[in-house]
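Build the 3D complex.
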Amino acid sequence: GENVEQHPSTLSVQEGDSAVIKCTYSDSASNYFPWYKQELGKRPQLIIDIRSNVGEKKDQRIAVTLNKTAKHFSLHITETQPEDSAVYFCAASRSNYGQNFVFGPGTRLSVLP
Amino acid sequence: DTGVSQNPRHKITKRGQNVTFRCDPISEHNRLYWYRQTLGQGPEFLTYFQNEAQLEKSRLLSDRFSAERPKGSFSTLEIQRTEQGDSAMYLCASSLGQDIQYFGAGTRLSVL
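Done.
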Protein backbone atom coordinates (compact mmCIF):
# COMPACT_ATOMS: atom_id res chain seq x y z
CA GLY A 1 0.00 0.00 0.00
CA GLU A 2 0.88 3.67 -0.13
CA ASN A 3 3.37 5.12 2.36
CA VAL A 4 3.92 8.86 2.75
CA GLU A 5 6.92 10.33 4.51
CA GLN A 6 7.20 14.00 5.48
CA HIS A 7 10.14 16.16 6.52
CA PRO A 8 10.96 18.02 8.63
CA SER A 9 8.79 17.11 11.60
CA THR A 10 9.27 20.60 13.07
CA LEU A 11 10.25 23.83 11.37
CA SER A 12 10.87 27.27 12.84
CA VAL A 13 11.27 30.32 10.62
CA GLN A 14 11.41 34.05 11.15
CA GLU A 15 8.42 36.05 10.03
CA GLY A 16 8.86 37.01 6.40
CA ASP A 17 11.12 34.07 5.55
CA SER A 18 10.12 31.13 3.38
CA ALA A 19 9.23 27.64 4.59
CA VAL A 20 9.53 24.41 2.63
CA ILE A 21 8.05 21.05 3.60
CA LYS A 22 8.83 17.92 1.61
CA CYS A 23 6.91 14.67 1.19
CA THR A 24 7.70 11.43 -0.59
CA TYR A 25 5.27 8.72 -1.59
CA SER A 26 5.71 5.10 -2.59
CA ASP A 27 2.76 4.24 -4.86
CA SER A 28 3.45 5.36 -8.41
CA ALA A 29 -0.30 5.09 -9.11
CA SER A 30 -1.05 7.96 -6.71
CA ASN A 31 -2.24 10.95 -8.69
CA TYR A 32 -3.73 13.45 -6.26
CA PHE A 33 -1.74 15.28 -3.57
CA PRO A 34 -3.49 17.65 -1.16
CA TRP A 35 -1.98 19.68 1.66
CA TYR A 36 -3.93 20.35 4.82
CA LYS A 37 -3.31 22.86 7.59
CA GLN A 38 -4.44 22.00 11.10
CA GLU A 39 -4.39 24.55 13.88
CA LEU A 40 -4.45 23.36 17.46
CA GLY A 41 -7.82 21.84 18.31
CA LYS A 42 -9.28 22.55 14.89
CA ARG A 43 -10.20 20.55 11.82
CA PRO A 44 -7.74 19.94 8.97
CA GLN A 45 -8.35 22.46 6.21
CA LEU A 46 -7.22 22.13 2.61
CA ILE A 47 -4.79 24.85 1.61
CA ILE A 48 -3.67 23.65 -1.82
CA ASP A 49 -3.68 20.50 -3.91
CA ILE A 50 -2.05 19.23 -7.08
CA ARG A 51 -2.88 16.50 -9.56
CA SER A 52 -0.30 14.41 -11.32
CA ASN A 53 -0.85 16.03 -14.70
CA VAL A 54 0.84 19.27 -13.56
CA GLY A 55 4.22 19.96 -12.01
CA GLU A 56 3.50 23.12 -10.07
CA LYS A 57 0.57 25.07 -8.68
CA LYS A 58 0.55 28.41 -6.94
CA ASP A 59 -2.01 30.28 -4.85
CA GLN A 60 -0.78 33.64 -3.53
CA ARG A 61 1.94 32.87 -0.95
CA ILE A 62 1.55 29.10 -1.22
CA ALA A 63 2.90 26.82 -3.95
CA VAL A 64 3.22 23.09 -4.41
CA THR A 65 5.64 21.29 -6.73
CA LEU A 66 5.42 17.68 -7.83
CA ASN A 67 8.15 15.43 -9.22
CA LYS A 68 6.43 12.25 -10.39
CA THR A 69 9.65 10.55 -11.42
CA ALA A 70 11.19 10.95 -7.98
CA LYS A 71 7.80 10.53 -6.26
CA HIS A 72 8.08 13.60 -4.12
CA PHE A 73 6.17 16.83 -3.71
CA SER A 74 6.82 19.95 -1.69
CA LEU A 75 4.91 22.81 -0.10
CA HIS A 76 6.42 26.27 -0.31
CA ILE A 77 5.18 29.16 1.82
CA THR A 78 6.69 32.57 1.12
CA GLU A 79 6.60 35.70 3.27
CA THR A 80 5.52 33.68 6.29
CA GLN A 81 3.26 35.27 8.89
CA PRO A 82 2.56 34.28 12.50
CA GLU A 83 -0.87 32.98 11.47
CA ASP A 84 0.86 30.41 9.27
CA SER A 85 1.93 28.63 12.47
CA ALA A 86 0.17 25.25 12.49
CA VAL A 87 0.70 21.58 11.67
CA TYR A 88 0.80 20.85 7.96
CA PHE A 89 -0.06 17.43 6.53
CA CYS A 90 0.60 16.17 3.04
CA ALA A 91 -1.39 13.29 1.59
CA ALA A 92 -1.46 11.07 -1.47
CA SER A 93 -4.28 9.17 -3.10
CA ARG A 94 -5.37 7.39 -6.24
CA SER A 95 -8.35 9.42 -7.29
CA ASN A 96 -9.78 6.71 -9.47
CA TYR A 97 -9.78 4.20 -6.61
CA GLY A 98 -11.79 5.41 -3.65
CA GLN A 99 -9.62 8.41 -3.00
CA ASN A 100 -8.95 7.57 0.61
CA PHE A 101 -5.98 9.68 1.59
CA VAL A 102 -2.73 8.39 3.05
CA PHE A 103 -1.37 11.21 5.19
CA GLY A 104 2.16 12.03 6.18
CA PRO A 105 2.98 12.39 9.90
CA GLY A 106 2.84 16.19 9.78
CA THR A 107 5.18 19.17 10.12
CA ARG A 108 4.78 21.62 12.97
CA LEU A 109 5.58 25.06 11.58
CA SER A 110 6.35 27.90 13.95
CA VAL A 111 6.68 31.41 12.56
CA LEU A 112 8.57 33.58 14.99
CA PRO A 113 7.74 37.30 15.11
CA ASP B 1 -22.57 26.19 9.69
CA THR B 2 -22.91 24.22 6.47
CA GLY B 3 -19.70 22.27 6.96
CA VAL B 4 -19.21 18.70 8.14
CA SER B 5 -20.69 18.29 11.59
CA GLN B 6 -19.63 15.69 14.15
CA ASN B 7 -21.19 14.81 17.48
CA PRO B 8 -20.30 14.58 20.22
CA ARG B 9 -17.15 16.70 20.26
CA HIS B 10 -15.79 14.86 23.26
CA LYS B 11 -16.56 11.43 24.69
CA ILE B 12 -15.15 9.94 27.86
CA THR B 13 -15.92 6.31 28.50
CA LYS B 14 -14.75 3.41 30.59
CA ARG B 15 -12.93 0.50 29.07
CA GLY B 16 -15.34 -2.15 27.84
CA GLN B 17 -18.19 0.25 27.10
CA ASN B 18 -19.67 0.83 23.64
CA VAL B 19 -19.62 4.27 22.04
CA THR B 20 -21.24 5.71 18.93
CA PHE B 21 -20.27 8.82 17.00
CA ARG B 22 -22.28 10.67 14.39
CA CYS B 23 -21.18 12.54 11.29
CA ASP B 24 -23.37 14.80 9.16
CA PRO B 25 -21.64 15.51 5.86
CA ILE B 26 -22.02 18.57 3.68
CA SER B 27 -25.38 18.38 1.99
CA GLU B 28 -25.31 16.53 -1.34
CA HIS B 29 -21.82 15.14 -0.78
CA ASN B 30 -22.05 11.52 -1.86
CA ARG B 31 -18.78 10.32 -0.31
CA LEU B 32 -18.12 10.12 3.40
CA TYR B 33 -14.89 9.06 5.07
CA TRP B 34 -13.84 8.16 8.61
CA TYR B 35 -10.29 8.72 9.83
CA ARG B 36 -8.57 8.29 13.18
CA GLN B 37 -5.91 10.71 14.39
CA THR B 38 -3.63 10.19 17.37
CA LEU B 39 -1.49 12.88 18.93
CA GLY B 40 1.39 13.95 16.71
CA GLN B 41 0.27 11.86 13.76
CA GLY B 42 -1.60 12.43 10.54
CA PRO B 43 -5.13 11.11 10.09
CA GLU B 44 -5.34 7.37 9.31
CA PHE B 45 -8.03 6.11 6.97
CA LEU B 46 -10.64 3.80 8.50
CA THR B 47 -13.46 3.45 6.00
CA TYR B 48 -15.44 5.23 3.32
CA PHE B 49 -18.94 5.26 1.86
CA GLN B 50 -20.26 6.22 -1.51
CA ASN B 51 -23.89 7.02 -0.84
CA GLU B 52 -25.04 4.18 1.47
CA ALA B 53 -22.50 1.62 0.26
CA GLN B 54 -19.41 1.00 2.36
CA LEU B 55 -16.80 0.53 -0.35
CA GLU B 56 -13.54 0.22 1.52
CA LYS B 57 -12.35 -0.64 5.02
CA SER B 58 -8.86 -0.33 6.43
CA ARG B 59 -7.15 -3.15 8.27
CA LEU B 60 -7.22 -0.73 11.21
CA LEU B 61 -10.96 -1.31 11.42
CA SER B 62 -11.14 -4.32 13.71
CA ASP B 63 -14.33 -6.31 14.22
CA ARG B 64 -15.12 -4.09 17.21
CA PHE B 65 -15.64 -1.18 14.84
CA SER B 66 -18.69 -0.80 12.64
CA ALA B 67 -19.83 2.08 10.47
CA GLU B 68 -23.12 2.71 8.76
CA ARG B 69 -24.63 5.25 6.43
CA PRO B 70 -28.17 3.89 6.11
CA LYS B 71 -29.75 6.55 3.93
CA GLY B 72 -26.68 7.91 2.24
CA SER B 73 -26.71 11.02 4.39
CA PHE B 74 -25.38 10.96 7.98
CA SER B 75 -23.09 8.19 9.18
CA THR B 76 -22.42 6.54 12.53
CA LEU B 77 -19.24 4.90 13.78
CA GLU B 78 -19.64 2.47 16.67
CA ILE B 79 -16.85 1.02 18.75
CA GLN B 80 -17.77 -1.95 20.89
CA ARG B 81 -15.90 -3.05 24.02
CA THR B 82 -13.63 0.01 23.93
CA GLU B 83 -9.96 -0.36 24.81
CA GLN B 84 -7.51 2.28 25.97
CA GLY B 85 -5.80 2.06 22.58
CA ASP B 86 -8.98 3.36 20.98
CA SER B 87 -8.38 6.79 22.53
CA ALA B 88 -7.94 9.17 19.61
CA MET B 89 -9.61 11.89 17.58
CA TYR B 90 -12.11 10.42 15.12
CA LEU B 91 -12.46 12.60 12.05
CA CYS B 92 -15.14 12.51 9.41
CA ALA B 93 -14.76 14.00 5.94
CA SER B 94 -17.05 14.30 2.95
CA SER B 95 -16.60 14.98 -0.74
CA LEU B 96 -18.62 15.31 -3.91
CA GLY B 97 -17.30 12.51 -6.06
CA GLN B 98 -13.54 12.64 -6.46
CA ASP B 99 -13.38 16.24 -5.33
CA ILE B 100 -11.81 17.84 -2.29
CA GLN B 101 -12.42 16.22 1.11
CA TYR B 102 -13.79 18.56 3.77
CA PHE B 103 -13.18 17.55 7.35
CA GLY B 104 -15.30 17.89 10.45
CA ALA B 105 -13.92 19.06 13.77
CA GLY B 106 -13.77 15.50 15.06
CA THR B 107 -14.88 13.56 18.11
CA ARG B 108 -12.20 13.15 20.76
CA LEU B 109 -12.54 9.79 22.51
CA SER B 110 -10.90 9.13 25.85
CA VAL B 111 -11.09 5.58 27.19
CA LEU B 112 -10.31 5.34 30.90
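DSSP finds no helices and eleven strands in chain B.
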